[in-house]
Amino acid sequence: MSNVHTQAYQKFLKRLRQARVEAKLSQVTVAKKLRKPQSFVSKIESGERRLDFVEVHSLAKLYGKPLSFFHS
After folding, report:
1. What CATH number has the domain bearing residue 59?
2. Mean pLDDT, residues 26-52
3. Phi-psi region of 50 (alpha: psi -120 to 50; beta: other; left: phi over 0)
4. Total domains present in the chain
5. What is the reported pLDDT for 6?
């Protein structure tokens, strides 16, 4: 993966964590709402697991953010 893509994905992950914090949700709470283990959320936020569009959309809805929030 090119450095540009890596930097862009890191920015996306930062916004994803920011959205969760602004929604005042813990990783545990998000995982419960998604019916996933807490490690699922942790791996996403650390970049260990990549998200597909449907998952991004679900998280945006859960966090009360428009999809555009995650792209900057």
Report:
1. 1.10.260.40
2. 96
3. beta
4. 1
5. 87
